[in-house]
Design goal:
Layout lengths: L5 E3 L6 H20 L15 H5 L4 E6 L4 H8 L4 H15 L2 E6 L9 H10 L21 H11 L7 H9 L3 E4 L1 H6 L8 E2 L13 H10 L7 E5 L14 H8 L4 H14 L5 E6 L9 E5 L9 E2 L2 E2 L9 E3 L3 H10 L1 H7 L33 H43 L3 H23 L12 H23 L6 H22 L25 H24 L4 H21 L7 H19 L5 H25 L4 H11 L2 H18 L1 H29 L8 H4 L4 H18 L5 H19 L7
Parallel strand pairs: 1-4, 1-5, 2-6, 2-7, 3-11, 4-6
Antiparallel strand pairs: 3-8, 7-8, 9-10
Length: about 775
Amino acid sequence: MSEPMRIRSRPLRGVAWEVRRALVLVALALVTGVMLGPPGPSAAPAAPGPAASAAPAPLLVLGVSELSWASVRELAAGDDPQLAADAATVLQYAAANAPVNLVQRTIGENTCPADGWVTLGAGMRARADVSHTGPGAACSGGSWAEATRLAQADGYGTEPGALATALDAAGVGYAAVGDGAVLALTNAAGPPEAAEPGVLPAPAGGGTENAGERASASTAAEPDLILVDLMSTAGSPGGAGATDAESASSTAPPGPARAVHALAQALRELTAPARVVVVSVADPQDPSPQLAVLPAGTTSPRGSDGTLLVGPTTHRRGLIQLTDLAPTLLAAVAGQDAVAASGLTGGVLALPASGSSGASAPSTSAADPASAADLGAVDALADDAVHAVASNRAVIPMTLALLAATGAVLVAVGVGLRHPQSGRLGRLGWAACWASALPAGIWLSNLLPWWRAGAWAPMAAAVTATAAAGVLTGAAALLALAPRLGRPGAALLLTASGPVVLLVDAAAGAPLGFNGPLGMNAVVAGRFYGVSNTAFALAAGALLVAVAAGADRFATAHTRRRAAVAVAVGVPGAIALAVDGAPQLGADVGGALTLLPALVALGAGLAGVRLGLRRWLGVGLVTVGVVGAFAVADYAAGSRTHLGGFVSQVVDGRAGATLVRKAAALTAPFLTSPLALLALVIGVGVASAATWWLRRTVRDARAGVGAYAWLVAATPAWPGPTLRGLAVLVVLEVLVNDSGLTMLLFSAAAALPALAALLLSSRVGPR
């Protein structure tokens, strides 16, 4: 096997010139294998043999930045005829191939083009440009050395240039055209070498005969993979000898307009069949899913949803990650064995072996097949991207609304219990029921297209969630009319609605939680399926309260209390643990580590069993064993969710760095943000004051002193064990999840209204 060729483009006139050079490389690969016959003047042109016909077409990656499907649609409907034609070209090309949304998130909230390119070449999230981290700062570029230094500091185990290293090991030739492409294909051996003049022929004036002569000089050096940075502006575009197209490219306005012009021009000039991957690697100004187009015939191991591929690592319709491209490109040119040997952990999409030519000028015919029905996939992708951005913007307002509603209800309940009246307590009980139904209402709000409200999307989400919680509360009020159920039973069902909705949604692939008002989304891109940290905190907090109240009712009706408690806590707890921790369902490592000890603490308290140090050690061993079994099963199956991925890190020695990074994530926000530190101080102060007041009030009430003394005789015994179980829950979830103290807030927002609703529904009378 010959040594792989590593080509780096020389600075030329501009973007169009660079693109043409890359496109000629693709043509040369075809000319070499098809048009050239045996040497000698009498040799006849050789027909392609079986080996030649079976050879895959060259793979060409055209990279831009700041381009989403929504921006292409806007440019296509704009007033500029040239940009409208360019956008139409891109849309028609997408309709004839496999368009998807691309997760642009690397490390940090904003992603510069250099970050995107180095991530593409590393196969893992990385960054090479830290100039944009300051307020109002813009991207200024990056280097491989800086990317390597940052990778070591970030602790993700990223190896910049891992794709180039794997290509070298497989003996695959590759080329880089433009600064971003060179950055992606630079590894520890250095940047791609400069190309020989005969390998990169001039784009103009060379017909088929000239191309054949040049290819004859470098038959063994044709690259199988070419990366092109269409946004690179090396040299002096528009200089002497530049064509009209080059001048237009150099004067195009920045942002999406410039990107769509460069991309459309490249697609029109691509005449030789090739496997083309179009990708927008970043958008630092508008962090949102970017566009990507895969060749027609591309398949995913997770199949398709309608006309859209399902991402191998996202499990979502029409959504792949930037980290999926490196193993996908490697598999396309070197095979699956090369991917397994490379250590790249992203998902692999199967690209077709045959190529296709580029795009033609857009048709104006009403019968154009790409004008209506075929663009439905693009419209769906644009709507999904809008959904993701709206979800990201709604998280903080929805969090504040949830906490405010919880606080208001709890204050009202506290004041109402000081002056108890039957009617007032009844109204407060239903208010607490509504607050306890808010988490389920927030998830159910994603059934309606609130994200299409534009700037009012967060408000629309809040209104929809409020209405959904109201509908659930109304249904509970109707159930309360049933004689055998009554208000306590209806309140218990309503309390259980939150955990049921959130966990069932996770088991179904999180269609409501993903891109929801308070769930995971494609912008933050921390998780795409299963149980997120927020979902776990909300579900677990309400789950403990519901299980405690239900177990107490169940045990009261049986003579063997401990056995009844074990069944009433163990059955729903085991179901919740399976959904939360199973790799193909919740895939939640931190949640599984937290939930089992919290359930044990709750069950022991309800059964009157004291847990000493030895028993707690046993609980810890069982918890680690259960989670380890989930993780090993996932690793053995090769699915590599969060659980199996951690086992993979243990095997290759990267687990320590991951643990250190997650531990640092607990304190990093408070060390880097004065506002976060101030919020922590205020939160700790408020929590300390509330704890002091609560303990004093409880002590006085037990002594028969104070306004709440009447509650001692009217309160059942199960809230005490519930609070102890909640204490175990919040301590562990804060320690083992990188969301930190926010887990405590969400669990409190779910548990405390539910606790108040259940106690008030017991028809506590006046003193």
